Amino acid sequence: MKLRPHPKSLAAFTLIEIMVVVVILGVLAATIIPQFRGTTTDAKISTAKSNIAELESALERFYIHLDRHPTTEEGLQALVTAPSADKDNWRGPYIKVLRPDPWGVPFQYRNPGTHGAGAFDLWSRGADKADGGEGEASDIGNWQ
Question: Which CATH number characterizes residue 115's domain?
Fold first, then answer.
């Protein structure tokens, strides 16, 4: 008499089959994940450039109404709340919220500017959160 195997025992995976699948998934992950590593940095740089362009536009609207750009001391906060000396001519807020750059640091503003791109300098310190830097850690400014 020949014994038949139980039908439920044929439906399971063996430990070796599961290990082979895990190894294949690990190899795939090791080859794919490094391709996406630079994507986050590129997205943050693009966001910083876009935010700088938006702030420049708001600064120009400020200039149209008050015939001057905010001083360095007033900073970008003058786009959200009226400077005490110019409350009558101020028609803001020129932006709803003053957000930090993509690395969580406030955007930097200086008037008069030193980079010759215009009346003011507006920049993000970049990934290293310090002035200067090279490559991915370089500053992103309105003079570039």
Answer: 3.30.700.10
Tell me the C-alpha distance between 140 and 100, whole Å: 13
DSSP code at position 12: S
**Two tokens at 32?**
């794919």
Structural domains of the chain, count: 1
Residue 63 domain-assigned (yes or no): yes
Q: Which residues contact 51 (CB under 8 A, 6 or more apart)?
A: 99, 101, 102, 107, 124
47 lies in which domain range? 43-141
Whether the link from the prior residue into 70 is cis, omega within 30° of 0, is no
* pLDDT tens figures, 89-108: 888 799 999 999 999 999 99
Helix (H, G, I), strand (E, B) or coil at 121: strand
pTM reported for the whole predicted model: 0.71
